[in-house]
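Work Package 4 report. The design task specified in the project plan requires that, given a folded chain encoded as structure tokens, an amino acid be chosen for each position. We show below one input record used in the internal validation round.
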């Protein structure tokens, strides 16, 4: 892809929207009812299964020639509400692993980034102490370079 001359917010917005579009349209993720960006959402109103896309901090790496490498990093947390602990957890795991496969199948996100790099897989992600919510997550860094 090469180093971009776009502003940082322009690049970030493009990657974010490209990810959301991929999550909402990929044939392997049709059972996902809702994609939520950011951490703030009332769980009671959330349709299940849902995917939370949570941005994470990263440190730009300076490269030669006035270029910086940016790894826009996101957690993709799958939430399944239900009363069948084993089946609901399996569904959450299946969806998070499918997200992993979706991003590794096209590691350039349709040409938006240089590489989509898997960083973490957490099949039994835990959040809160609720016996009717089941979680699983994967984390990716979407790498690109920018002239600075």
């Amino acid at each position: 892809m090469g180093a971009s001359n776009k502003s940082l917010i322009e690049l970030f917005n493009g990657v974010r929207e490209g990810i959301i579009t991929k999550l909402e349209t990929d044939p392997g993720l049709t059972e996902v009812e809702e994609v939520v960006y950011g951490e703030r959402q009332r769980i009671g109103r959330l349709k299940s299964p849902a995917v939370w896309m949570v941005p994470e901090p990263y440190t730009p790496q300076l490269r030669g020639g006035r270029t910086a490498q940016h790894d826009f990093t996101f957690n993709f947390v799958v939430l399944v509400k239900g009363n069948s602990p084993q089946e609901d957890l399996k569904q959450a795991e299946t969806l998070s692993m499918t997200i992993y496969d979706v991003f590794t199948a096209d590691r350039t996100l349709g040409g938006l980034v240089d590489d989509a790099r898997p960083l973490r897989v957490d099949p039994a992600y835990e959040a809160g102490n609720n016996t009717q919510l089941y979680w699983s997550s994967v984390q990716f860094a979407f790498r690109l370079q920018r002239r600075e």
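The chain has one domain: 8-147. Validation will be extended to a larger panel in the next phase.
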